[in-house]
Amino acid sequence: MKNILFPYSEDYQSISKYWWHRALIIVFAVAVFLAGYSVWRSFLQSEEAGYSSCNMLQIAMYAHDPSLTAGKELQLGKLQCIQNDQIHPVIDFGIGVFVSVITFYMLQFLYYKTIGFIFNEKDCKGNQQH
Q1: Which pick of 11, 39, 55, 65 has the fewest CB atoms within 10 Å?
Q2: How far is residue 79 from each of residues 2, 86, 126, measured CA to CA in Å?
Q3: Cβ contacts of residue 33 below 8 Å, gap of 6+?
């Protein structure tokens, strides 16, 4: 399971002794979480804004005539807003998780390939001997 989640960690075990590597692991975890969370909130806020603006438009359309606001027109307008501007919190959360997974593997790839480039490939890999 570790090989699936962290495909490069076995090849670069020798860098785990450095303090900056351990610090970057914390930055990595925070970045993965923030990427997924920000995408999830962005999608959710976008859908909520669409519904809210539609709802405000419906209220503004019928505000000039108080007899219409108490009637079925406003309720039908709100139902139309719900149908046209639906909010999908589970789908938005799924998109956030997907972005987190992509970020998780992309950052690992970039990090370990950069480390392999900065350090000599033979110096980094714990299982190779010269």
Answers
A1: 65
A2: 49, 10, 63
A3: 100
Residue 86's closest CA among 108, 54, 64? 54
Is it the case that residue 129 has pLDDT exceeding 50? no
Encoding tokens for residue 42? 């962005």
Measure the CA angle with vertex 98, ends 84 and 7; round to 5°: 175
Dihedral sign computed on CA atoms, order 111, 115, 121, 122 = negative
pLDDT per position as a tens digit, 65-103: 666 555 566 677 777 777 777 778 889 899 999 999 999
Closest CA to 13 of 117, 103, 112: 112
- pTM for the structure as a whole: 0.68
Per the prediction, the chain carries an average pLDDT of 80
Query: Is-contact 108 31, C-beta < 8 A?
Result: no
Q: Which residue type does 55 have?
A: N
Task: Look at residue 121 in the predicted model and tell me its pLDDT.
Answer: 55
Sorted by where each begins, the domain ranges of the chain are: 22-117
State the alpha helices, DSSP H only, in the chain. Answer: 2-5, 19-62, 66-69, 72-84, 89-118, 121-124
